Structures are given as C-alpha cells and as structure tokens.
Design the sequence.
C-alpha cells in the first residue's frame, strides 16, 4: 500500500506514526511544503508546547471547542487527553500538569516533542520530503493522484494534514474536489481599545469578571488582563474564540459590557454595598474596596463613576450607590480592532465537518482521502486543546478505515 500524508506538522506526524504502526509494510511519505517540519510545535506554548489539557470532565473538555465539540466528544472515546499523556510518557517524554491543567513536557522545551516524533519516524521508516508542496489532488478510480509544482504521483490512501488556512483560496484545491468550506476567520485574539483610558491600568489582572458583547448573546467569564492596547486574558480569548465569526462580521468594531463582580442581579450588588456602608461608614471610598477589586481598578472605577475618593462610605446616598452598582456591573467599553494573542493564531473555519465521516476521518466526496488537524473546521480555546484535537483526529485517520 502506498500512503501519502500532506503536511509535516503535529497532525501529519501523529497520523504517520499511527499509520505505520497499523500497517508496518506500507510505504509512507510525508510531504511538507516548507523546508522544516513541526515548526508550529517548535514555537507552541512560548517554546514549551502545551500539548494537551489535564481536564478530567468530558463535558468541560468538549466545551473548550467552539467548533467541532460534538464530533470531538465522540472521537475522544478513541483517543483522549489521558491517551495523549500516556503516549508521550511511554515514549520517554515525561510530562507535567500545571495548576491551570495545561500539560507540558517536563523539560519545558518543545524540542522534546519534536525529538520524540523524529525518533519514531526513524524507527518506523517514515520518509519525509521537504519543499514538496501539494497543489492539487485528483481521484483516479480508487487511487489518488497528488500534483506537485513539477510532476505528480499516485497513492492508495492520502491523509490531508495541512493545518489552518487563513484564506479560503488556500483551500481551493479541496473545495474544487467538492468539499464544503466554512469561511476561514481568525480565532483567539485580544481586544484593542484605542479610545479607552482603561489602558492606563495595564498589567492589572481581575480574577473573575464576566464580559459580554452588546447586541449579541456572547458572554464569558474568567481572569481578565488589562493591557497597553486594551483587554486580554482567558475571559477575552474565550469570547474571541466563541464569537470568532460574529466579531469578524462586525469588522471587530463593537462594545463590551464588563461586570467586574460577576454578579448578575444588581439588587444583590446593591445589598452588598449597603452592608459595606453599615460596617464601614467612616472609611473613605479610597480605603475600602468591595469584592477585593484591585486597588488601581477600584480608584479608576470611582473616577469613572464621578465619585470622589475622599467621600466616606457613610456619605453615599442612594443615587451614588446606584451609580456604583451600575459601574460595577455594566461598565461599557468600545472595542476597535484586534491583536493576535502571542502569535498563537488559530483558524476558525476550514473543511466543513459535513464533508467528513468523523468515525473514520474519511472524506465523504473522495474515498481513500482522510483529514486530520486544523485543516478542518475545528478549533479550541487556549490550554492545549488545539493540539489535542490534532492528536485525536490523527489517531483516527491513522487507522485508514
Ligand atoms: C505560535 C503558536 C503557538 C501555539 N501554541 C499552542 C499550544 O501551546 N497548544 C495548543 O494546543 N495549540 C497551540 N497552537 C495551535 C497549534 O499549533 C495548531 O492547532 C496545530 O499545530 C495544528 O496542527 P496541524 O498539524 O493541523 O497543522 P500545522 O501544525 O499548521 O501543520 C501543517 C503543516 O502542513 C504544511 N502544509 C500546508 N499546506 C501544504 C501543502 N499544500 N503541501 C505540503 N505541506 C503543506 C505546513 O507547512 C505545516 O508544516 C499554537 C499556534 C501558534 C501559531
């Protein structure tokens, strides 16, 4: 059997290794268009490679995928994060699970993952061809012809693992074959707020506010980081991933509502503030912060609400308290533009899952053609979820069912 893998990234290597383990006698070659394999693995996780997430609840795990959650949930039954951890540790790569559940090689160096893949590729006699970009795929009977800049070759089975394509044109060769394409747009970005003064608070992390996008149902919560260009942190990144398509349609111009205390009922916040007034009536607003808000943020919010820091809590009337409730629970900012998060760009969109049989990862329009990794319309939030999707889909594709 002659098998080709298109793309020498995470999904390409992982599927190649499994193909060779399942079919040791097959001839297998990875075609990589650039002059390097595994370049995203190398730079991933700030050079440390956050290769999966240690989350043990399948519902929480699946929820980390704005696109592909339903299909992946079933696929994790074949190969999940525990399997990933076992797989690498069995091959001599010890791992560590951080407190935030992100999983890294104990070496804290992505090279350990690359070395592991290269050793496996050598052991299994996997051929790797660099500077070999595929420009077209043509079914010929039950076989598949791959076209290169110069010439073509015929294979019995082909796995497409070309990664995310930021432009639809990059997927034209797959679209021309009849695959449905979901328009690619960026996911995982931070919000720019050029006209907002909150940027002066850069560096502040707020533990657990909730944020929502005006005029949409998009909402998230979690830590929020104020940066010198706007807002970032898990709450913002999650919102950017779940809202990737809607925010692209809005051309990244929208308003966000921040609920700094993450309490929806304004009456309970008012009750909390009345309790503060009762217990701290002689204290200056400046000196007593409700909800343990960061000091600089609290002073900023008081100013924003037009409340003097020199007032005592006891001096606040009903009107002032209502103003405070409003600023704490419904603080509106204008977002204009986005910034890529640590260059960790991930694509929302790609080959539609409606064109793929997820039990086998085989194309529904071209028999013997399989898919793995980010080329599909699958993406996750930060935390190792994108690599886990690559490992899981590559494991299934590698069975060549
Ligand atoms: C800076 C950065 C940091 C990241 N950090 C993390 C992290 O820590 N954890 C995490 O889970 N995710 C992370 N991600 C996301 C993760 O890297 C990707 O989701 C993952 O690499 C997808 O794997 P893939 O094999 O599908 O695609 P890729 O890794 O992109 O590999 C695709 C390969 O195919 C090649 N190729 C493309 N077209 C062709 C063609 N026509 N012919 C031949 N070869 C072709 C490409 O050159 C590339 O080498 C990060 C992404 C970036 C950019």
Sequence:
């Amino acid at each position: 059997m002659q098998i080709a893998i298109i793309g020498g990234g995470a999904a390409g290597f992982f599927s190649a290794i499994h193909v060779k383990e399942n079919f040791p006698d097959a001839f297998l070659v990875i075609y990589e268009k650039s002059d390097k394999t595994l370049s995203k693995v190398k730079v991933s996780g700030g050079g440390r490679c956050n290769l999966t997430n240690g989350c043990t609840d399948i519902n929480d795990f699946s929820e980390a995928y704005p696109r592909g959650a339903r299909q992946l949930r079933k696929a994790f039954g074949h190969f999940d994060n525990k399997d990933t951890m076992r797989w690498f540790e069995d091959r001599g790569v010890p791992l560590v699970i951080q407190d935030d559940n992100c999983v890294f090689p104990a070496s804290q160096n992505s090279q350990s993952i690359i070395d592991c893949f290269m050793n496996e590729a050598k052991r299994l006699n996997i051929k790797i061809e660099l500077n070999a970009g595929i420009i077209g795929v043509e079914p010929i009977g039950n076989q598949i012809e791959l076209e290169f800049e110069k010439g073509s070759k015929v294979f019995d089975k082909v796995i497409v693992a070309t990664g995310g394509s930021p432009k639809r044109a990059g997927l034209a060769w797959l679209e021309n074959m009849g695959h449905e394409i979901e328009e690619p747009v960026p996911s995982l970005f931070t919000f720019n707020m050029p006209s907002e003064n909150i940027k002066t608070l850069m560096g502040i992390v707020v533990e657990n506010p909730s944020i929502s996008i005006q005029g949409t149902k998009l909402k998230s919560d979690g830590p929020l980081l104020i940066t010198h260009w706007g807002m970032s942190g898990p709450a913002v990144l999650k919102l950017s991933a779940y809202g990737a398509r809607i925010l692209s349609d809005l051309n990244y111009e929208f308003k966000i509502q921040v609920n700094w205390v993450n309490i929806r009922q304004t009456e309970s916040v008012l009750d909390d503030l009345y309790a503060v007034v009762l217990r701290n009536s002689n204290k200056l607003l400046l000196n007593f912060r409700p909800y343990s808000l960061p000091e600089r943020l609290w002073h900023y919010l008081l100013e924003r609400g037009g409340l003097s820091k020199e007032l005592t809590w006891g001096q606040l009337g009903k009107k002032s308290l209502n103003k405070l409730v409003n600023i704490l629970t419904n603080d509106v900012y204008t977002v204009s533009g986005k910034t890529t998060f640590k260059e960790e760009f991930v694509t929302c969109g790609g080959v539609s899952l409606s064109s793929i049989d997820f039990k086998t990862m085989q194309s529904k329009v071209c028999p013997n053609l399989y898919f793995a990794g980010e080329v599909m319309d699958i993406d996750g939030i930060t935390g190792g979820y994108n690599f886990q999707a690559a490992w899981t889909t590559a494991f299934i594709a590698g069975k060549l069912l």
User: Anything to note?
Assistant: The first strand starts at residue 2 and ends at 6. The pocket of flavin-adenine dinucleotide is lined by residues 6-12, 31-34, 39-40, 43-45, 49-50, 133-134, 161-163, 343-346, 373-375, 384-387, 390 (CB under 6 Å). The chain has a mean pLDDT of 96.
